[in-house]
Amino acid sequence: MTTAAVLAALATACGLGSWCFTTARWTSRAPKTAILLWQALGVSWGLASTGAMLAFAVQPYGEGVLHGLVSFATGRSPLVPWDALHVVAMVAGLTALAVLVAVLLTAGVQTLRARHRHRTLLALISHDDPVLPGVRVLDHPSAAAYCVPGLRSQVVVSQGALSLLSKDEMAAVLAHEAAHVRERHDLVLLPFAALRRALPWSKVVRDAQAQVELLIEMAADDRARRYCSPRRLATALLRFGTAGAMPTPHGMLGVGAHNLMARVDRLLKPAPELPMSLRYGAVALSVTLVTSTPFLWIYQL
């Protein structure tokens, strides 16, 4: 019972923490740290919420969640006879866990299929450009710049973007897209998209996904300005915003996808960096959340 109560308390704390985190103002000053904390909150909430039900369900075995589930799966008799509450908790816990795993796998498969179809399409309607080695150029008058993540990642720009941007601005945009590819921001987004599928009615989940989408764009902006002028990147974003850029295809990551004005303002008027003590505190909290939940699944309190 103690393990179930601790896991339920941890799930509640993660839920409340996520709700408070959606309005936090420091995240733009340290987007990578904020992304890490968001990931820890999401993973811990999922494991704690399902683990609380399963910990109560396997209580008759007198073992932790994992060992209790193994005993249940192998047909071993419990130390205490089952009752209706434990049976309901087992059904609810396994169902919730199955739903979370299923939506994650479904989201991953659908994203992979969308990227495969898009790569096939790009092979037909795009071409290489000697001026931009390694970049696929799409013959389309609207402005577009995005990456197709994966093992065979591609960066795509449209002819409209080439006409719209100067050479320096295009270099800034390509640095932004390279950051998405290098840091695999698509994998960061996948669990939040899956959670949105599982809980489409939840405002907290919807806000969390929107926050993470904006944070990965800010993180890519930060990496891009190591190689280019922040003003050039800000100008490119403004041009995309005023030109009515083409929407980024499903499953891809685009330079002008989210909250352009907030990103432009951040590039032109950067706020002071978050103190290292707060960064380390957020990282320590993330590590604690991610490690404590599996511990509670394995060991009984």
UniProtKB/TrEMBL annotation:
- Identify the cofactor(s): Zn(2+)
Q: Which GO terms describe its biological process?
A: proteolysis
Q: Which GO terms describe its molecular function?
A: metal ion binding; metalloendopeptidase activity
Cofactor note text: Binds 1 zinc ion per subunit.
Query: Per its UniProt record, what InterPro entries does this chain match?
Result: Beta-lactam_resp_regulator (IPR052173), Peptidase_M48 (IPR001915)
Domain Peptidase M48, chain residue ranges per copy = 123-191
Q: Which UniProt keywords apply?
A: Hydrolase, Membrane, Metal-binding, Metalloprotease, Protease, Transmembrane, Transmembrane helix, Zinc
Instruction: State the Pfam families in the record.
Output: Peptidase_M48
Q: Does the keyword Ribonucleoprotein apply?
A: no
Membrane-crossing ranges are 36-58, 88-109, 278-299
Family that this chain belongs to:
Belongs to the peptidase M48 family.
Which PANTHER family does UniProt cross-reference here? POSSIBLE SENSOR-TRANSDUCER PROTEIN BLAR, SLR0241 PROTEIN
What's the protein here called?
A: M56 family metallopeptidase
This protein's species is: Nonomuraea montanisoli
